[in-house]
Design a protein that fits this description.
Bound molecules: tetrahydrodeoxyuridine
Radius of gyration: 15 Å
Order of helices and strands: HHEEHEHEEH
Number of helices: 5
Distance between the termini: 16 Å
Low-confidence stretches: 1-5
Structural class: alpha+beta
Shape: globular
Number of strands: 5
Strand order of the largest sheet: 2-1-3-4-5
């Protein structure tokens, strides 16, 4: 598929890399600016080159301008020249529920391929992992724009 050529399947993170990614998502959560929701979220994004970019949610008194942790991390990575991603870990304070990315974040993640991993965690660090394809099935992406 054309999409696969643009974004070759990335290698899954190694065990130590994954532990670091999970830790960095929890650390990023501590920086969350969320005085309105009081719902801190952290994200950590592993690039194909092995670097990690983290992000937190950044809210605003003009509520609609708030940005999720996942998009903060992606924008940091993109603006530092990284467009190929292996995995993202997401952390919140929810004890009984795995944090899941909102629909807008799923679409922004999908822009950079459908075959990378997203680690959804609980506050205790336990996780489940989902491929982007699972989080956003039948997605629209950059390849579709070339089909007309
Ligand atoms: N939020 C995230 O940053 N990521 C998610 O996965 C879900 C929600 C933020 C947005 C807002 O600042 C707060 O959590 C409550 O919705």
């Amino acid at each position: 598929m054309e999409g696969d050529r643009q974004h070759p399947a990335p290698a899954a993170p190694r065990r130590e890399q994954l532990q670091l990614l999970l830790l960095r998502s929890q650390e990023a959560k501590n920086c969350a600016y969320c005085p309105y929701s009081r719902f801190p979220v952290g994200a950590a994004l592993l690039t194909a080159s092995g670097e990690i970019f983290s992000g937190c949610n950044v809210e605003n008194a003009c509520y609609s301008l708030g940005v999720c942790a996942e998009r903060t991390a992606i924008q940091k990575a993109i603006s530092e020249g990284h467009t190929s991603f292996r995995a993202m870990a997401i952390a919140s304070d929810m004890g009984d529920t795995f944090i899941v990315p909102c629909g807008a974040c799923r679409q922004v993640m999908r822009e950079f391929g459908t075959d990378w991993d997203v680690y959804l965690t609980k506050a205790d660090g336990s996780y489940i992992v989902k491929r982007l394809e699972e989080l956003l099935p039948l997605s629209f992406g950059p390849e579709d724009l070339k089909k007309v």
